[in-house]
From TrEMBL:
This is Flagellar biosynthesis protein FlgE. It comes from Pseudoalteromonas holothuriae. Residues 34-52 have a biased composition (Low complexity). Residues 31-63 are annotated as: Disordered.
Amino acid sequence: MPIGDVLNTGLEGFNRASQGIERASAEINRATVQNQSDQEQSQQRQLQAASANEATTAPVSQPAKIDESLVNLKVEEFNAKANTQTIRTADEALGTLIDIRV
């Protein structure tokens, strides 16, 4: 396999990993903001209920999928590291070939 193909494959893989990292980070951010908003709304309802002396229960909301996004973030980190090593190895091989031919 030509060295250029290995470099291109490593770069494509690294770019995909970078996009995955951005996507997972955005999902974590979105879930965190949503969770904070839900907590603020719940606190507001509790304050209103306390002032009106009536008991209300907070509505059940879907838990944020932060755990899944964190796993995806870690997977993409490993992908980026693996592709970085591929690029580094191809660069070293290319450097060795150039040194030999000169």
